[in-house]
Amino acid sequence: MSVCPFTLEMSVRDYECDLQGIVNNSVYQNYLEHARHEYLKSVGIDFADYARQGIQLVVVRAELDYKHPLGSGDHFVVEVRMERESRLRFAFLQTILRQPDRKVAVEAKIIGTALNERGRPTLPTALAQLLDS
């Protein structure tokens, strides 16, 4: 489990906003996914390499709490922590914080697993070691 969260800085682009001038709720899932992929790369787990090996890292549940909207041009940081959810599942605990005031925009718990080439849940060794460290 990551004690200190991984962070990734990003900015809202104009086209991500809806008619109300705020980030569309579905766009936050893109921010969260990008941060998860960058986090995994930072700890030596290559999402694309797993896919080439027939191992698919998949989301099985997403819980998002929208706290405060972001708007065009806002800068924000996505924090990512990972923990074991069960024997074959893991959770990403993520927070999107507007910068520079660190106002919480979204809190999320994304639960995932890995599927082998037969579509059966599995936990690759590197991922298990990361979760158990």
Please explain how this structure is put together.
It is built from three helices and six strands, in the order βααβββββα. The chain is α+β, with helices and mostly antiparallel strands. A hairpin with a 4-residue loop joins strand 4 (90-99) and strand 5. The mean pLDDT is 93.
Would you summarize the structure shown here?
By secondary structure, the chain is α+β, with helices and mostly antiparallel strands. It has helices at 25-42, 47-52, 125-132, and strands spanning 6-11, 56-66, 75-84, 90-99, 104-115, 121-122. Strands 1, 2, 3, 4, 5 and 6 form a six-stranded antiparallel sheet that branches.
Helix/sheet category = alpha+beta
Residue runs with pLDDT of under 50 for 5 or more positions: none
What's the main sheet like?
A: 6 strands, antiparallel
How many H/I helical runs?
Answer: 3
Give the rounded overall mean pLDDT: 93
Radius of gyration, whole Å: 16 Å
**From N to C, what is the helix and strand string?**
EHHEEEEEH
Number of strands: 6
Quaternary arrangement of the chains shown? Answer: single chain
**Residues in helix, %:** 10-25%
Helix and strand layout, with pairings?
Elements: E1 6-11, H1 25-42, H2 47-52, E2 56-66, E3 75-84, E4 90-99, E5 104-115, E6 121-122, H3 125-132
Antiparallel strand pairs: 1-3, 2-5, 3-4, 4-5, 5-6
